[in-house]
């Protein structure tokens, strides 16, 4: 059997740069006049390649907005964003759609699997649509990493919630994107299934060299990351390296304290 280390090439995916995504002075405002809301306020951030980054902060602090802007799902009001070496701010819709398809993977809270397709067909669907042939060795490794071998012929309804989310993780990994964004990927799972999925996300970073960015409210989930960015009122106010659930919880409590004082 091929080991992960043998297949994983640190130059891939995405070239030699140590940074998978960059934001410079990114501001995002919704509405205008009296109803104007500044969701992001001159945010600078570098997302390191091959690392697991969590984004946390109180409700309304701008987590989803930051993720959507970094992923090219939303436009910025000002500032610049790069995925790898490609600046995405200013790309035309068609170019942006292609870049998202080729370089970015997504995992959402709802698993978004097609019920009529089995697990394997769901995993390869984005590549089938793009007319790309999956790299079989990589696909085998992904299926192995997320623990789905033996369940590939199952339809989503024949799988538990945790298994369905693992299919969604495998689907995001299959095309070997430069970066994967997860929006509360364990938000719909009980703690045991959530822990399983987080373990597989962690393994995909450690063993497959994937770059992962996850928005979460859950300090336990953030404890699986290498680095946590804390947002408040559209600004990155703090960050933590090698977080634990306890240290993240403690930091989040200070936001609560600030809000109620
Ligand atoms: N489409 C929109 N139109 C107007 N305001 C918006 C829109 N999307 C977000 N906002 C506002 O921008 C701010 C940041 O929202 P965002 O969803 O990014 O926060 P969040 O930290 O992800 O929140 P939550 O944890 O509750 O999901 C909030 O004040 C929100 O009301």
TrEMBL record:
Pfam families: ABC_tran. SMART domains: AAA. GO terms for cellular component: membrane protein complex; plasma membrane. One of its GO terms (molecular function) is ATP hydrolysis activity. The keyword DNA-binding does not apply. The keyword ATP-binding applies. Keywords: ATP-binding, Nucleotide-binding, Transport. Residues 21-258 form the ABC transporter domain. Gene3D superfamilies: P-loop containing nucleotide triphosphate hydrolases. This is ABC transporter ATP-binding protein.
């Amino acid at each position: 059997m091929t080991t992960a280390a043998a297949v994983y090439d640190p130059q891939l995916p995405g070239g030699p740069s140590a940074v998978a995504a960059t934001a410079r002075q990114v501001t995002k405002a919704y509405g205008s006049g009296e109803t104007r809301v500044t969701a992001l306020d001159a945010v600078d951030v570098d997302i390191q390649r091959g690392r697991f980054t969590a984004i946390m902060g109180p409700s309304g602090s701008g987590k989803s907005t930051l993720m959507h802007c970094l992923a090219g799902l939303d436009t910025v009001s000002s500032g610049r964003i790069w995925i790898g070496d490609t600046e995405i701010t200013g790309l035309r819709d068609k170019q942006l759609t292609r870049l998202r398809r080729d370089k970015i993977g997504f995992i959402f809270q709802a698993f978004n699997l097609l019920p009529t397709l089995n697990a394997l067909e769901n995993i390869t669907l984005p590549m089938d649509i793009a007319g790309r042939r999956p790299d079989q060795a990589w696909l085998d490794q992904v299926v192995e990493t997320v623990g789905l071998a033996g369940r590939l012929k199952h339809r989503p309804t024949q799988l538990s919630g945790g298994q369905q989310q693992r299919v969604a993780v495998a689907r995001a990994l299959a095309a070997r994107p430069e970066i994967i964004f997860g929006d509360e990927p364990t938000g719909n799972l009980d703690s045991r299934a959530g822990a399983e999925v987080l373990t597989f996300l962690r393994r995909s970073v450690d063993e497959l060299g994937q770059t992962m960015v996850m928005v979460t409210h859950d300090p336990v989930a953030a404890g699986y990351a290498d680095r946590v960015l804390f947002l408040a009122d559209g600004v990155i106010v703090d960050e933590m390296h090698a977080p634990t659930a306890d240290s993240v919880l403690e930091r989040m409590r200070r936001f609560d304290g600030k809000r109620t004082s």
